[in-house]
Amino acid sequence: MANSSRKEQLEAMLADEPNDSLLRYMLAMEHVSAGDDARAVECFRDLLARSTDYVPGYMQLGQALCRTGKTDEARDVWRRGIIQAQQQGNDHAAGEMQGMVEGLE
To answer: How many other C-beta atoms can be found within 10 angstroms of the C-beta atom of residue 76?
Structure first.
């Protein structure tokens, strides 16, 4: 399936299920795969505005922000993600994001 048709399918599904976090994450990742980090950042931000507990969104948003040169914002996103991950008992994700933060310092 081509990226554009896959994106279109995800967008159509989101029209029916606007609060589906997994669909929002998948759409953002389609933009990452296409090399469109600016659009991916928008999608990840939208995801996290609707689902503040979606830990993978923090990790991927931070990475996309780094690729667009916004390292300070990436650090802040990862720190928020670490808190969410710890609240969920997800030490692995918290540790990965902590490593990313430390890699910027």
So the answer is: 14
Res. 79 pLDDT band, cuts 50 70 90: very high
Q: Is residue 40 within 8 Å of residue 64, measured between CB atoms?
A: yes
- Tokens representing residue 101 in the block: 């933060």
Residue ranges of domains in the chain? 3-104
| Side chain identity at residue 93, one-letter code | A
> For residue range 18-60, what is the model confidence (pLDDT) as tens digits?
999 999 999 999 999 999 999 999 999 999 999 999 999 999 9
Nearest-Å Rg of the Cα atoms of the chain is 14
Instruction: Give me the architecture of the 3-104 domain, per CATH.
Output: Alpha Horseshoe (1.25)
Closest CA to 94 of 65, 52, 55: 55
pTM for the predicted model, two decimal places: 0.90
Residue in the block written with tokens 């994700």: 93
